[in-house]
Write a sequence for this structure.
C-alpha cells in the first residue's frame, strides 16, 4: 500500500507536484499516467525518500520510506535502468545491493535466473543493451521479495517481446497480492497492463479510476455523415431522436443513432448520402483530451469516470 | 489474497548487522571496479620507482644529508607524497562523483535511505583501503631509500628514535587525503570540479602560502596539509610552524571538516 496525501513539490518557481493525493492498493497493477513533465518521476522520488516534499506526505506500508531499515524487503523499485557503473559486472552490481540489505548470494542467483540474465551475469553492465539493463533493474527490485514494487517507465525503449514479458511479470506480481505501481506516458501500454489508473497532469490528479471504467466512459461512438442536403438531413435525424453536431468542414457528427438507421432514414426521404463512417475515438485520444493543455485540470470535471478509491 | 509477508522485513536487524550490511555494500562496490585495483598497482610501481631515483640522486649529491630542509627521512617520502597521494585522492573523489554521474547514487540511497550511514560506510571502506596502501608504501619507501643511502652517507634505521612514528604518520596521511577527496566529491558531486578542489586543498593552498611575504607564508602555511605533514614526518620540526602535536590536529581537521560538511549537505539535498 502506498498512500500519497496532499503532496506538493516545488523546485524554485516550478511546481512539479501540486497537492496530489491517491492510494495505491495491493493486488493490482496501478498505472501512473501523465505526459512527460507531469510530475510522475518526482512523485516516485518523494515516495522513495530521495526528494523531500515541500508539503504533504508519502507513506509506504504506513511508514515514511526514510525510516525503513533494509527497505528492499518492503519496497522494490526501478527508477532509472541505466544508473549503473559501466565497468562493474551485473553480478557484482546485484551482489553489492543484496549485501546492503543483508540478502544472500543465493537470492542474487535466483533473481538473475528469473530475469533471464544468469548467462550474462559476469559481463560488465556497461556493455548491456537497454533491454538487459531494464531486466537488471527489475532483478534489483525483486531482490528482497518485497510486497510493494515501484517502476518508473519500465518499458521505455524495449522491443515487443520484452514489453510482453514485463507486462506478464507485473500481472503475476499483482496476482500474488503485491502492490505494483508503474508509471508510463503511454495510455495504450497502461490499458493492457494496469487494472487501475492514476492520471496526473501538471502535478495534479486528473483521474483515479479502474481502467475498465475509464475505457467505458471515455470512448464515445459517433457517426460521420456527409450529404449535399445536410440541413434537411440534420433536421430529419434530430426529429428521430439523434444528436447532430455540424463540423467545421460541413460534415455531421451524429450520436445516439447507428449507421444503418441513418442510411435507411435518408433513403426513405430520398436524401443523398455521400459518406457514412462510424467513428470510435481511440483510448489514446480520450487520454490526450484529458491531459491536453486546453483543459482546466480538475479531477472534478470528470465525474462520470468515478471517484478515487473505487 | 494476502500481501506477502517477509520475515526479514519484520525482524529489526541489530546495529552490528546493519553496519556489516553497509560496509560490505561499499566494499563490494569499491573492489569490483577493476580500474581501482589497477590504478593502485600502477601507483605502487611508480612510487617505488620514483623513490629509488630520488634516493639515488640524494646519495650521489655530496653534503645533502647534512644541509637543507631534506633529511634521509623526509627524502624517503618525496615520491610517495606526489605519486601516491595525488592519484589515491582522485580515486577517492570518484567514490561519490562516479555514482552521481551515473545516477547510481539514487539506487544507493534507495537501498540504504540513512544517508549518514552511507557516508560513514564509504569513509570507513575508502579510508581503510587508503590507510593500508599508505602504510605499505610509506614503509616500502622508507626501507628502499635507507637501503640505497646506507651505501653512501649512511641511512636511518627503524630503531632510530622517532622514526617509526614518522613513517606511520606518512602512511596515515594517505588516509587523510583520501577522506578529504571523498568529502569534497560528496559536496561538489561533479568529478572534474571535485578533483580540482581536492588538488587545491591538498597541495595548492600550501604552494600559495609559500609565495606570501614572510611571516605570512608560515603563519598561514602551518594550517595547510603539506606544512602540517612535514612537521609530523620530520625528525627536526621547524620552530616557526605548529608543533607536531598541533600539526596532527590540523591534519585531522581537514578531513573532519570535509566529511561533516558533506554529511550536512547529503542530509539536506534532494537526489
Amino acid at each position: 500500500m502506498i498512500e500519497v496525501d496532499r503532496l506538493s513539490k516545488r523546485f524554485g518557481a516550478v511546481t512539479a507536484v501540486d497537492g496530489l493525493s491517491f492510494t495505491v492498493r495491493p493486488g493490482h497493477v496501478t498505472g501512473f499516467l501523465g505526459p512527460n513533465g507531469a510530475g510522475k518521476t518526482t512523485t516516485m522520488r518523494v515516495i522513495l525518500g530521495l526528494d523531500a516534499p515541500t508539503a504533504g506526505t508519502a507513506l509506504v506500508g504506513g511508514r515514511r520510506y526514510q525510516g525503513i531499515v533494509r527497505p528492499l524487503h518492503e519496497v522494490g523499485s526501478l527508477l532509472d535502468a541505466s544508473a549503473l557503473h559501466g565497468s562493474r559486472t551485473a553480478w557484482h552490481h546485484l551482489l553489492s545491493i543484496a549485501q546492503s540489505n543483508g540478502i544472500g548470494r543465493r537470492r542474487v542467483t535466483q533473481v538473475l535466473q528469473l530475469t533471464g540474465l544468469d548467462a550474462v551475469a559476469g559481463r560488465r553492465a556497461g556493455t548491456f543493451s537497454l533491454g538487459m539493463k531494464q531486466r537488471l533493474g527489475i532483478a534489483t527490485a525483486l531482490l528482497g521479495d518485497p510486497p510493494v514494487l515501484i517502476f518508473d517507465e519500465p518499458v521505455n525503449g524495449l522491443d515487443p517481446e520484452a514489453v510482453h514479458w514485463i507486462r506478464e511479470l507485473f500481472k503475476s506480481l499483482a496476482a500474488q497480492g503485491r502492490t505494483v505501481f508503474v508509471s508510463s506516458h503511454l495510455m495504450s501500454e497502461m490499458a493492457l497492463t494496469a487494472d487501475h489508473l492514476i492520471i496526473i497532469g501538471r502535478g495534479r490528479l486528473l483521474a483515479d479510476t479502474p481502467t475498465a471504467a475509464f475505457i467505458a466512459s471515455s470512448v464515445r461512438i459517433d457517426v460521420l455523415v456527409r450529404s449535399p442536403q445536410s440541413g434537411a438531413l440534420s433536421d430529419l435525424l434530430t426529429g428521430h431522436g439523434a444528436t447532430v453536431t455540424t463540423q467545421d468542414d460541413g460534415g455531421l457528427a451524429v450520436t445516439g443513432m447507428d449507421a444503418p438507421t441513418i442510411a435507411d432514414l435518408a433513403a426513405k426521404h430520398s436524401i443523398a448520402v455521400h459518406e457514412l463512417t462510424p467513428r470510435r475515438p481511440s483510448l489514446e485520444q480520450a487520454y490526450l483530451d484529458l491531459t491536453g493543455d486546453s483543459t482546466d485540470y480538475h479531477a472534478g470535471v470528470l465525474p462520470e469516470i468515478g471517484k478515487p478509491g473505487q | 489474497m494476502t500481501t506477502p509477508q517477509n520475515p526479514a522485513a519484520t525482524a529489526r536487524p541489530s546495529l552490528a548487522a546493519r553496519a556489516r550490511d553497509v560496509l560490505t555494500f561499499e566494499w563490494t562496490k569499491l573492489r569490483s571496479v577493476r580500474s581501482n585495483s589497477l590504478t593502485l598497482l600502477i601507483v605502487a610501481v611508480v612510487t617505488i620507482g620514483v623513490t629509488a631515483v630520488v634516493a639515488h640522486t640524494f646519495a650521489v649529491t655530496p653534503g645533502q644529508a647534512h644541509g637543507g630542509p631534506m633529511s634521509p627521512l623526509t627524502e624517503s617520502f618525496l615520491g610517495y607524497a606526489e605519486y601516491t597521494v595525488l592519484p589515491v585522492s582522485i580515486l577517492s573523489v570518484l567514490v561519490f562523483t562516479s555514482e552521481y554521474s551515473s545516477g547510481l547514487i539514487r539506487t544507493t540511497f534507495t537501498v540504504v535511505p540513512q544517508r549518514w550511514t552511507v557516508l560513514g560506510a564509504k569513509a570507513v571502506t575508502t579510508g581503510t583501503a587508503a590507510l593500508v596502501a599508505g602504510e605499505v608504501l610509506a614503509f616500502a619507501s622508507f626501507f628502499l631509500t635507507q637501503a640505497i643511502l646506507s651505501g653512501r652517507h649512511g641511512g636511518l634505521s627503524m630503531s632510530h628514535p622517532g622514526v617509526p612514528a614518522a613513517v606511520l604518520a606518512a602512511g596515515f596521511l594517505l588516509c587523510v587525503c583520501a577522506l578529504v577527496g571523498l568529502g569534497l566529491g560528496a559536496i561538489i558531486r561533479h568529478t572534474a570540479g571535485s578533483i580540482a578542489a581536492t588538488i587545491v586543498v591538498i597541495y595548492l593552498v600550501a604552494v600559495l602560502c609559500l609565495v606570501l611575504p614572510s611571516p605570512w607564508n608560515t603563519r598561514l602555511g602551518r594550517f595547510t596539509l603539506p606544512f602540517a605533514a612535514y612537521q609530523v614526518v620530520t625528525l627536526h620540526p621547524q620552530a616557526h610552524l605548529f608543533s607536531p602535536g598541533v600539526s596532527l590536529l590540523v591534519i585531522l581537521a581537514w578531513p573532519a571538516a570535509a566529511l561533516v560538511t558533506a554529511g550536512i549537505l547529503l542530509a539536506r539535498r534532494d537526489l
